[in-house]
Amino acid sequence: MAERSFAAEVEQLRIGAGETFHGEGILAVTKALLQSGVAYVGGYQGSPISHLMDVFADANDLMAELGVHFEASASEATAAAMLAASVNYPLRGAVAWKSVVGTNVASDALSNVASGGVTGGALVILGEDYGEGSSIMQERTHAFAMKSQMWLLDPRPDLGLMVDMVEQGFRLSEASATPVMLELRVRACHMTGSFVARDNRRPPMTVGEAAANPVRDTDRIVLPPANFLHEHEKIEQRWPAAIDYVRDAKLNERFGPDEDDIGIIVQGGLFNTLNRALELIGLSNAWGDTALPVHVLNCVYPLVPDEIAAFCAGKHAVLIVEEGQPEFIEHELNTLVRRADLQTAIVGKAVLPRAGEYTGQVLREGLAKFLREWAPDRAPVETPLAAPAVTPAMVPQRPAGFCTGCPERPIFSAMKLVQRELGEFHVSADIGCHLFSILPPFHIGNTTMGYGLGSAGASAFKPAGKRAIAMMGDGGFWHNGLTSGIGNAVFNKDDTLTIIVDNGYSAATGGQDIPSSKAFNKARVTNNPIERAVRGVGVGWARTMTRTYDVGGMRDAIRDAVTSPEKGPKVLIAQSECQLNRQRRVKPAMAKAIKAGNRVVRERFGVDPDTCTGDHACIRLSGCPSLTIRDNPDPLRQDPVAHVDNSCVGCGVCGEVSHAAVLCPSFYKAQLVFNPTRWDRMRAAMRDWWIGLLQRHETRSRLARGF
Amino acid sequence: MASDTRISIAILGLGGQGGGVLADWIVQLGEAAGFVTQGTSVPGVAQRTGSTVYYIEWMRAGDRRPVLALMPVPGDVDIVIASELMEAGRAMLRGFVSDRTTLIASTHRVYAIAEKSAPGDGRASDERILAAARERSARFIGFDMDAAAIAAGSVISSTLFGALAASEALPVPRSAFEDAIRAGGKAVEASLRAFAAGHDAARSAPAALPDARPVLVPPVPTTVAGRRIADRIVAHLPAPAHPFALEGARRLMDYQDDGYARLYLDRLEALAALDPDGLLTAEAARHLALWMAYEDTIRVAGLKVRESRTARVRAEVRAQPGQILGLVEYMHPRFEEICETLPAGIGARLLAGERWRRLLAPRFEKGRHVETSGIRWFTAMRLLSAMRRFRRGTLKYRVEQARIEDWLARITTAARSDPALALELVRCQRLIKGYGDTHVRGWDKFTRLMAAAENMAGRSDAGARLAMLREAALADESGSALDAELARLAA
């Protein structure tokens, strides 16, 4: 079950020609695929493209009606390999993932499909995780397009245009026998808007029909001598065909006046930000009526030489607004104007930052620099912004952290306790929520090398007295960790500990099901235990802890694993359900049960402020959002006391931590009984009578001797 | 304003606060009112409790499709909504708040991990952010919208939406806002209640400071012994020390008895004799009371069994009147704490003897779940608290009094030559807190500071240096900041 349900939104995917579609960018792209007669869809979840996969999963019934095949791929590589279906058959197919990391994983299959070429349109939809909010290394997908000769679309953020680009992408792919990438930036994925829909189209051929009538063409297979043939084909036929299509279909757009001695070329995805920056210096308006000629590259690779030459002709200088580095387009433009024998100066990173996101402010400053140099009469008068009234030191940073009640927190609390006993360990971290262990308050984790690569990242550390520890998520485990990490560790006689976080979902990407999920899923096979899989590849020391919240137990298990005399890789599977998903399920169920009159016990934790001394050791071992601080009610004390707020879900970690770390007696667990039974009430009456008696006596005697 | 027909709105919030719901409402509100609207967000890792920005633009619908931006530009935002005070600070830091901005912010705090985990008080200053908010925005609407939402049984997004309606920064009537909530279809009634609460509060409340810390109200004596002690404080201690001394004496009578409070006053009076302006005595009244009321098993048991504690817990966990409430304490008395509660002679022998430790310590290695709502454990805790009358004979009492006397001797010596140093020595008591290992670490830092103070004695800046060392000692748990500071001072 994914974090967000699109069941309601999916209904909109059914609307027909002429109706207006309202919704998020990702949803619009889904609708565009159905309108394009796509035959199969696959992909791997990851921000910002997760919702695309969730929408597909929720739209399973609709897709089945249309004869469209959908599957959640095991990894980006398997998703890319799925495009094999378009090699021999006129099947339109689309796969999606997070880039650049997913493209890295997929690149083997991508190179193969790009080399042999395709018959049906093959579209790769990429959620480009660059800039604010990104969680990955800042690299460009553009490089993959260039090295594999795949075409890269980067549409202007306008829902209607994005939808058109999906259809155009398929056509471009078919016209040039080449797979096409459609890049969507983070905010475009989640941008709301509207467009006028067209009817959904059944694919002219389904994947089932293709399988029933196999076609074989050995010239499409990457094997000598065909691979040499492919290289020539790419250069001599597919590239020119693509350029012709991009030009003739007018994929790139022109804004502003025809004539000027300066101009701007911009990646389509950055146009809206550029327009705002132009507007702020008085050179455009809210409708994109730019006062300078702007050439918008909705297709950033390949460039169309005549288009570029025509745009640059007669201009002293052209600004290229290209985000990220290296500045591939700027290099290419320089080559193109040279070849066209134009004297136009191509200005890019000379006035814009080489690295970092191009926000409105950044582009405004870059534009001003460009204008000051090439059109001083149109340059804005610089009025420096007022210095901010607030300095960075005044506003505390908010690194991401584990959610309230997260089952991963106690794993790292336990590791911190083991480190107190045995000293620090080298910890090879992995991609996923558990990577937050690197941040405060845990400060655990030395490197992270890629999804599912936690164990592989520790493989060079042959122990001399102390074992290295690797982390791996269940998502990463099924993505590739089982083979690249665990199998490899067995094979190479590694002597490390791998802790696999088995929280029941691919949690960091939004709670999608994976093979070891506990949930029943009618479209998938779940409930495949991780421990069986690791024993299957030869791990001897494997243990499953079914309740990570048992901090003491986790600590003992980790200590055992790192001190056990047994050689070979050890695998500790730390199993507890992702709390975000659990709460989504449990909360309404509990409310319903209380309403129905059933006996329900709700647990939550609290801190006694008069025994808490305000040293916050508990917070340094937990970091739970619901465990916070507040003013010390004791007028003599100065430091704030710990406090559990009402968002507590009663997971129990704070109590277990204070037990395991021998912290303090301030934590209590409160058990609120709803709809008590008669026995509950009887027992409570007895207790209240006795406790009340003692308490009243205690109060009397204390007041008598008191102040 | 870049365009007089466009309205730009930025929402700064924390993942999980419902910022997405609020953004959706504002988008729908605009669409229903005939605007072309666009909203964007950055879900993903930022939503896992980090800060995140939602951005919305409204544009009067016309013949042509406008080009709307996907992120706020500094100086070009009409409305900034911050779901927490430091997020309002972040909005200003990023330049989103300008002289044309209506800033709507909840003034409550959700503390960042660095603020929470500091061994001392690591909280950022609210006052500076509030002052900047008032100064830099065209209009600032700020109050505790979280509390208002909770009181209405809803979440903060609804009160923020109410405050937005009340601000009249958007050209739509209140009823349109309520329609947007209804159209959302989820928890409509509670959301509307919280919306109304937010709306009304924004109309009436001036931008208020969050509650300042309650000032100390000196207790009024209620017993003969108490009055005698209060009279002695007024007669023999300097006026600045009265409030703390009265509270300190009250606490120690509660902790032990009036004899113990008299010992406290004996100690304070000795310091007062060396302290002409009373500042040292006032500070000592605070810290000496805290130290003398040290936490032992007897004290903890005593606090856990009180009537007032039951009432406080019931309120805290929002138990309904009459609702059955179970209570389980997480206690972990170690072998050391048990020995310290025993008569000094026995306790010391047990602690010193390896054989006893080997034999007995394993029995105390596991934490205990103490069910104080049950008859058995409650009675046991009550009996333990009654050990108070034997406290003076315990090992812990002997150890703590010796430590206190040593500390007071250092203060007395310093007070004669360097009052500033004496004051800082008093304040070092702040380091001694926590239980078990935490207490050991705090005590270790304290002793290092005492040693450092001894070495610095005679320097003109000894007090200031000791204060710096104390700040360093409170900066982290491991003591690495203290190590660095000590090394720096030694160089």
From TrEMBL, chain A:
GO terms for molecular function: indolepyruvate ferredoxin oxidoreductase activity; metal ion binding; thiamine pyrophosphate binding. It comes from the Bacteria. Residues 603-634 form the 4Fe-4S ferredoxin-type domain. It holds the Pfam family TPP_enzyme_C. Keywords: Metal-binding, Oxidoreductase, Pyruvate. GO terms for biological process: small molecule metabolic process. This is Indolepyruvate ferredoxin oxidoreductase subunit alpha.
Automatic annotation (TrEMBL), chain B:
One of its GO terms (molecular function) is oxidoreductase activity, acting on the aldehyde or oxo group of donors. Keywords: Oxidoreductase, Pyruvate. It holds the Pfam family DUF6537. It comes from the Bacteria. Residues 15-199 form the Pyruvate/ketoisovalerate oxidoreductase catalytic domain. Residues 245-451 form the DUF6537 domain. InterPro entries: DUF6537 (IPR046667), IorB_Oxidoreductase (IPR052198), Pyrv/ketoisovalerate_OxRed_cat (IPR019752), Pyrv_flavodox_OxRed_cen (IPR002869). This is Indolepyruvate oxidoreductase subunit beta family protein. It comes from Sphingomonas baiyangensis.
